[in-house]
Amino acid sequence: MMNDLAIWNSLPIPAILVDGSDRVEDINPAAENFLNTSVKSIRGVPIWDKLMVDAPLEEAFERARRFSTPLFVNDVDIGTGDGPPMQCNLKIAPVSNASEKMIFLISSRELAGRMTRSNGVKSSAKSAIGMAEMLAHEIKNPLAGITGAAQLLSMNLSPDDLELTDLIVEESRRIVKLLEQVEQFGNLSPPQREPVNIHDVLDKARRSAVVGFGAHMTVIEDYDPSLPLAQGDADQLLQVVLNLLKNASEAAGDAGTIRLRTYYEHSFRLRRSDGTGQALPLQIEVIDDGPGLPQDIKGDVFDPFVSGRENGTGLGLALVSKIISDHDGLITVDSVPGRTVFRISLPRMPRDTNKKRKETT
């Protein structure tokens, strides 16, 4: 039979045990990730020094302790001091046969909403792909005729009139380029599932960025060297990281800093609507210090044809979301002025596969 420690460590949401003096006695692995600290570091720390809840809880909390009743606080912003607060449901309950001890359970509504939106984006992306491919095919043929006709006309025009035909040709080519992006979005092949060293992918993307579109940026590497291999398509993941780096570079303007961070979160799982689950322990973050996402598109940034730039197509992040979704992963974003974090969560390569690879080499 599973013991209490195994159950505690297996809880998929942050759980915090507080003693009668409101000091942290224990936290589970999910809470370590949520609070960005270890059990050893937080043990004995007053709970309200580490957990900032945007609601007047003191009196209700004391009543719950005094009368040994649970306390439920829904849709409340909870912060830890290490990032923007998240909307959560907070459940506080007395511990049986433990005088004045209370247990805090934190369920992030924001993360659950992101997972739901991720599934919705995948569905809407498929519909958008079908429509976009049809339009791309139908529009490219007449555009070729328009461009050719304008070029023929230009052969017999005066210099003043040439400006008009040049404009026709230039704008037609711009539309063709957009249609080619649409076709790329629709024709992406399924990922080839192989062992991938995430840091190799990040290094290739970083080197491409610093000699090209990100030459004006400072790129900082903050890697977990013990990260195991991911299961995915290295080329497609490189495309994802390059896209995120390009967005971060454009958002920062003339100068800025991008931090590439990796870490392992063993308790993170994506639970689907059919009840099945997928462990996504490998975390990649692309963090920039730009102005942040526009408020009006923050919740829809991964939808097709949604862009925060004046001349943006809105396909870049939709393509990123599609690739990560095809990898059975999750991509989310947290954005406030001065700090935008795109976080990719991916499955690791099964351990038995790594073992077989070592035995054959």
Kindly state the number of beta strands: 15
Strand order of the largest sheet: 2-1-6-5-4-3
Helix content: 40-55%
> With helices defined by DSSP (H or I, 4 residues minimum), what is the helix count?
11
Gap between N and C termini, in Å? 40 Å
What is the succession of H and E elements? HEEHHHEHEEEHHEHEEHEEEEHEEH
Q: Kindly report the average pLDDT value.
A: 80
Percent of residues in β-strands = 15-25%
What's the gyration radius in Å?
25 Å
Class of secondary structure makeup: alpha+beta
Low-pLDDT sequence parts: 355-361
How is the main sheet built?
6 strands, antiparallel
Shape: elongated
Structural account:
By secondary structure, the chain is α+β, with helices and mostly antiparallel strands. Helix content is 44%, strand content 23%. The two termini are 40 Å apart. Mean pLDDT is 80; it is low at 355-361.
List keywords for this structure.
5-stranded mixed sheet, 361 residues, disordered C terminus, single chain, alpha+beta, 6-stranded antiparallel sheet
Short description:
With 361 residues, the chain is α+β, with helices and mostly antiparallel strands.
What topology emerges from the helices and strands here?
Layout: H1 4-10, E1 15-18, E2 24-27, H2 29-35, H3 39-42, H4 47-50, E3 52-53, H5 58-67, E4 71-79, E5 86-94, E6 102-108, H6 109-154, H7 159-186, E7 194-196, H8 198-210, E8 217-222, E9 230-232, H9 234-252, E10 256-264, E11 269-271, E12 277-279, E13 282-288, H10 316-326, E14 330-336, E15 339-346, H11 351-360
Parallel strand pairs: 8-10
Antiparallel strand pairs: 1-2, 1-6, 3-4, 4-5, 5-6, 7-9, 10-13, 11-12, 13-15, 14-15
Helix pairs in contact: 6-7, 6-10, 8-9, 9-10
